[in-house]
């Protein structure tokens, strides 16, 4: 989304072994694929996002995967 009407936001990205490699509480923040300052590694990563809308106060949960390729 565009980040409109968002009261609360959390995003987590995990590697294939379940290690949390990125966390953000800012809807405008994005993950550049790096981990601890190292270059992005081609692999499959899992994301989990929790958003609270400011209109109804409902929480929405999203999860899926993203594949980084070189």
Largest sheet: 4 strands, antiparallel
Give Rg in angstroms. Answer: 13 Å
- Portion of residues in helices? under 10%
- Average pLDDT taken over every residue: 89
Give unreliable regions as ranges.
Answer: none
How many strand units? 4
Number of helices: 0
- Indicate the proportion of strand residues: over 45%
By oligomeric state, this entry counts as: single chain
> What is the end-to-end distance?
26 Å
Describe the structure.
With 70 residues, the protein is an all-beta fold. The chain is 0% helix and 50% strand. The protein contains no helices and 4 strands. It has strands at 6-14, 20-24, 43-53, 59-68. It has a 4-stranded antiparallel beta sheet, with no helix packed on it. Strand 3 and strand 4 form a beta hairpin. The chain is elongated and about 40 Å long. The chain starts with 5 loop residues before the first strand and ends with a strand. The mean pLDDT is 89.
């Amino acid at each position: 989304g565009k980040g409109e009407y968002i009261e609360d936001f959390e995003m987590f990205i995990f590697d294939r072994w379940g290690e949390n490699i990125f966390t953000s509480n800012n809807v405008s923040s994005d993950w550049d694929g790096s981990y601890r300052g190292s270059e992005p590694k081609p692999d499959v990563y899992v994301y989990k996002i929790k958003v609270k809308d400011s209109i109804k106060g409902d929480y929405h949960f999203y999860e899926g995967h993203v594949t980084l390729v070189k």
